[in-house]
Amino acid sequence: MVLTPRLDLRQTQSLVMTPQLQQAIKLLQLSNLELTEYVERELEQNPLLERDEGPRDDLEGAMMGAEPMGEPDEPAGDGFSADGTGVLEAADLSLSNGPEVSADASLDVDYDNLWNNGEADGAGGPGAAPGGGDNLHLGGELGQFAAAAGRGFDDQDSDIAQYVAGTESLRDRLTQQIAMDLSDPADRLVAAHLMEMLDEAGYLVGDLMDLADTLNTDLSHVEAVLDRVQHFDPPGLFARSLSECLALQLRDLNRLDPAMQALLDNLDLLAKHDLQGLLRICGVDHEDLAEMVAEIRALDPKPGLTQGDDLAQPITPDVLMHADGKGGWMIELNADNLPRVLVNNHYYSTISASARSKSDRQYLSECLQSANWLVKSLHQRATTILKVATEIVRQQDAFFRQGVRHLKPLVLRDIAEAIEMHESTVSRVTSNKFMATPRGIFELKYFFTPAISSADGGEAHSAEAVRHRIKALIDAESPKSIISDDKIVAILKQESVDIARRTVAKYREAMGIPSSVQRRRQKSAQI
């Protein structure tokens, strides 16, 4: 057999993921914060992209593709085409700025009276109130401070948030206490390493012996420094267990007596509500034990979280939903979340005419193609989110009208078939997307729950609705009549819910509800 080279001509078909298609898929699954960061990076890298800062006069008419929703079985109203786009095709998806406020609008605070820039006559100008000496003096000082900074408080570029005092982190607070309370440099070094061993709750993690070997010192030295830093504020830091954390806080309150220490050493009995065992170990009566337990409950088991470094970020919904006044629902995209970008074709025509080299022309062509595709991808993303949210509201209409007990079982395939899209597309749309409804803000994934069959062969029940029913039954039980899991199964079967006992136990544990034995101890103790 002889191996010789040869040329063949073949024609095949294959699915190719172009960079533009990959970008569209990536944008679809991004949250609103991630999308904003992505668009900001594109604005920095692409010279043909610019932020649209035009007026919003047409927003009230377009309303970002607002959709009136009738009854679930009714077809969509006028302006909603069969493919679900309708109004969105004519809506400007790039609008995102809030409505402009008139300069003459009245405000809650007279900033001119509080923060004037200190006119030459020293009287604060015509906006100063008679007799407001303190305000005038404060306004003059702030005006001089603003002038030294190069701009006044009435400047449009001035950000009042920059004058707010910054938050002090737990690390900064401990560093200050180490510098003030520890004079020996060796003690400060050990304390700094102990601070690095704290977790987010304020507990000490790691082995003290390993720290002593690392610093080439004695274990007794490390323990002595640990005892000193355990007196730092807030109390309870540098503890190695929950009982030690509570003991440090009680010591700070001068409430750590032998009986309380015995109670802290047997927290497992307290968790089991074994009152007789605690009474015997602590040597107190019922009244004293109740007071001791109340003191423990008033303590903070995670003192490190009281002064965290991260600020809680509020959830900004991607879709807004409200009643239209005619028995239906109005669904629209949140315009504040949509980035506003435009392609500057005038700038492209200007610089392309002066481009001489082939590489420059190719670079401009790639920038124009990337900018056009980004604008198109953003429009497609908004259209798809609105279509999916509209179909979710249509299928879960009973939930929005009557509550969680009427939440229907729903899977991605149901929505995908209704809007004629793939399940993976629906999955990407519902990830990290939220909808503001009359019943609160929900993630779109919340409306997809597995089905639990009906005992009488009727319509299936949603797992979320069953969990809500189990919690309602347990909350309504009396201390003298605790409902067991078997009893819950019997009650649910009477309500045509076919569910097993192990499923009830799984749902109960997932909601953090103890067993019937533990609940009986808790409610009978009345501590």
Description:
With 527 residues, the chain is mostly helical. The chain has three domains: 180 residues, no CATH class; 138 residues, Arc Repressor Mutant, subunit A (Orthogonal Bundle); 77 residues, Homeodomain-like (Arc Repressor Mutant, subunit A, Orthogonal Bundle), CATH 1.10.10. It has 24 helices and nine strands. The strands form three sheets. It has a five-stranded mixed sheet with strand order 2-4-3-6-7, with helices on one face. Strands 1-5 form a two-stranded antiparallel sheet. Strands 8-9 form a two-stranded antiparallel sheet. Helix 7 packs antiparallel against helix 8, helix 9 packs across helix 10 and helix 17 packs across helix 19. The radius of gyration is 33 Å and the shape is extended. The termini are far apart.
Strand order of the largest sheet: 2-4-3-6-7
Overall pLDDT confidence:
76
- Per DSSP, the total helix count is 24
Strand content: 5-15%
Q: Write down the overall geometry.
A: extended
Rg (CA only): 33 Å
Secondary structure tally: strands = 9
| Category by helix and strand content | mainly alpha
Number of domains: 3
Question: What level of helicity do the residues show?
Answer: 40-55%
Major beta-sheet overview = 5 strands, mixed
Residue ranges: pLDDT <50 for 5 or more in a row? 57-68, 70-158, 160-164
For the terminal residues, how far apart are their CA atoms?
92 Å
